[in-house]
Here is the input.
Amino acid sequence: MELTFEQRKALRRKKEKRDKAASVLVPTLTVILLLAIWQGAVIALNIASWQLPKPTDVFKSMVMDFQEFLPHIIRSYSIIILGFLCATVIGITLAAVLNNFKLLGVALTPYINLLCTTPVITLVPLLLLMFGFGQWVLVFAVTLQAFPILNMNAITGFANVETIRMELMRSMRATRVQTFFYCTLPASLPHVFTGMKLSGIFATTACISSEFTGGSKGLGAQIIAYTQFMKMDKAFACIFFVAIIGLLLYTMTGLLESKIIKWKI
Amino acid sequence: MTDTTEHKIVLKDLTKIFQTRRQTIIAVEHINMQFDDGDFVSIVGPSGCGKSTIIRMIDDIIKPTSGQILIDGQDITKHKRIPEDVIRKMGFIFQQPNMYPWRTVRENVELPLKILGLKGPEWKSYADELIDMVGLSAYKDNYPTEISGGSLQRAGVIRAMVHKPEILLMDEPFGALDETTMHQMNIELLEIWKKTQKTVIYITHSVEEAVLLSNRVYVMGTNPGRVVDETIIDLPRPRTLEMLASSHFIEYCKYLTAKIGHIDLSKIK
Here is the structure.
C-alpha cells in the first residue's frame, strides 16, 4: 500500500528525531570516554601536574578561578565574535558584488586568495607596531583572516547556480537584485554556511594566535603566561574556554543553517 | 511571405552561432517561422537541432546572432533590454519542473507576480484558481521535495501562466515523465489551451506528442539546425487518446518520422 504524503512526512520526522538524538548522544559519550581515559592515564602513569593536568583539575580551575579568567574570556570572545560578524557581512557582500561585476572579480580574487592563504599572524606584529595593542586592531586582524574563506565559498556557490534556475529569472526579466535574493543567494546557502563555519574556525585561530604575539590581555596571552609559570591546570582551563567559543560558533552556525534551510530533506 | 504583422510571432532568417574556445557551432541557421494568435505549433527534431535554442531566443533568454524576432510586429532583437510589456506576454515552461526548493508550491507559482510587480488580490486569487485547476490545492503549502514529479510539472505549467501571458513557450515540458503521465498531461494541456486561447509553441522530440497536440508541426534537422518540413495536422478537435490508434494519426507520425530522417550509419566506423 502506498503511503500518503502526510504519512511519509510523519515517518521522516520520526526518523529525523531519532537521528538527532543519536547525533547528540554519541559524541557526548565519546567525549566523556576520552576524558576518562585521560584522567586514568594521568593517574596510572603518575604524570606530574606541570606536564599534564587531570581533566578534573582543569574543570576545577575553570570554576574556581573563573573570576580571574573572566576579563580575558570577555576580551577574546568579543574580539572573535565581532571579527566573525564583520567577516560574515564583508564576505557575503563582497561575494555578491564580485559575482555581479565580473571584471572587479577578476581584479580582486587573487588578492583575496592571497589573504586567505597568508596566516594573519604574520601581519599582527606589524599591525600592533602601527596601531598599538588595542582591541580593535585584533578585531581587524580577525576579520582579515576570517572573511576570505567565507568569500571564496560564497563565490563558488553564487557562480554555480544551475543554469535552468537562472534562466527562470531571466525569462521573467528579474533585476540583478531580484535575481540575487530570489535565486542566487538561496540556491547557494549550503556553500555560504560552509564558508561561515570555516570562517568561525579561522576567527578563533586568528584571535588566539594574535594574542600569543604579545600583550597581557586575552585567553591567548593567558595561555602563554600560565604555561611559563607551569600552571598547567589554568593554561588548560583557558584552552578549554577557547575550545568552547570555537565550538559555539560552529554549532550556532549549524543551527542557523538548519533553521533557514528547512526545505532540505 | 505576406505582411508579417498579421502573425503573433514571426522569426525571420534567424541564426545563432555559439563561439566556444575551441570551435564555432552553428546552432540554427536561417530559421523562418510564423505563429498565429491562438495557434498550437510544435517543433520536433533530433537532439542538437537547436529547437531549444529557438524558443530561448523567442523568450530573450539568449540573443540571436542575426535575424529578427517579431512579437505582435515588434522586433525584440533591436532592444538591449526587451520591453516589459513584451516579456509579460510570454510564459516559459522548462523541461524540468524547475521549482525552487526553498519556496513552497504556492510561493513558486506566485514568483512571477513578485518579479513582475503584479500586486493585488486579483492576481493572488488567479494564482489560486490555477492551482485549483490543476488539482494542487491540497499541496500548495508543501515544499517541492514533498510532491511527485507529475504534480511538480503541473505547477511549472501554471507558474508560466500566472501573469496571464498570451504566449506559452514549452521546452519539452513532459519529456521527463513516463508515457502514461505524459499523455494525461497532454490532454490536460489541450483543455487549458482551449479554455485560455493562448498561443503555444511546443518543443518536443516525440512525434506522437506533436501530432496529438498541434495544428501545425515544424520538423528540424541538424548540422546546422534548420527547418526541413512544415506540416499541417488536420485532425479533428477535441483530440483524444483514442486517436493515437487511428490510421490517420499513424500516417502523420510515419510521415514526420521519415522527415526527421534516417539514422546516418556512415558516421559510425
About this structure: The interface with chain B takes residues 5, 9, 164-165, 167-174, 178, 182-183, 186-187, 189, 261, 263-265 of chain A (CB under 8 Å). DSSP finds eleven helices and no strands in chain A.
